Amino acid sequence: MGKLTVRALRAVLVVVLAGTVFVQALMLWALISGNDPEGGSLPLTPLRVITILGIGTAQVAMVCVWRLVTMVRRGTVFSHAAFRYVDAIIGAIVAAALVWFAVTALNAPGQRDDPGVTLIMGGVGLAILGVALIVLVLRTLLAQAVARDVEAAEMQAELGEVI
Asked: What is the pLDDT of residues 53-107, one digit of tens each?
């Protein structure tokens, strides 16, 4: 990865992370203060709590991506330490799917006249789980690359002994 790419990605991560922390703080303030600026029909308190948790899952993934990018820049991404961050990203995506299913469950009673909305929302939750499966496949590829890297280092050491 080039320096420009890393800097651009880090800039995006910083901006998005700052924005999500700001939104979480506003939602937390709305919960604590009891002010309800919206007069919506959905139960806003559970939705706010779920949104705060959902944003938290995205924040965990962003921090892990930051750490992985750091490992890429240092040339240490093909190590067992990288698995911790990839596993955390998978966990965050699964948690995001569960949060989305909670939103779907909260929204479902209001959609009795149009159950298609609930089905679509359930499909979005399954798509989120699909992203977790894609990252799991990428984790398997990382495991294969780490194994190849270890094997190459062993072969190089043996070749060094022979020479």
From this structure: 999 999 999 999 999 999 998 988 888 899 999 999 999 999 999 999 999 998 8
Contacts of 38 (CB under 8 A, 6+ apart): 44
Nearest to 61 by CA among 36, 31, 107, 97: 97
| Residue listed under structure tokens 């990203």 | 89
Residue 64 and residue 91 in contact, taking contact as beta carbons nearer than 8 Å: no
Q: Helix 44-74 to helix 3-33 angle, to the nearest 10 degrees?
A: 160
Do residues 30 and 48 make contact, with C-beta atoms less than 8 angstroms apart?
Answer: yes
Question: What's the token pair of residue 126?
Answer: 């399954």
Q: Alpha-carbon distance 111 to 109, whole Å?
A: 5
pTM of the model: 0.83
- The string over 102-116, giving b where at least 16 C-beta atoms fall within 10 Å of a residue's C-beta and e elsewhere, is bbbeeeeeeeeeeee
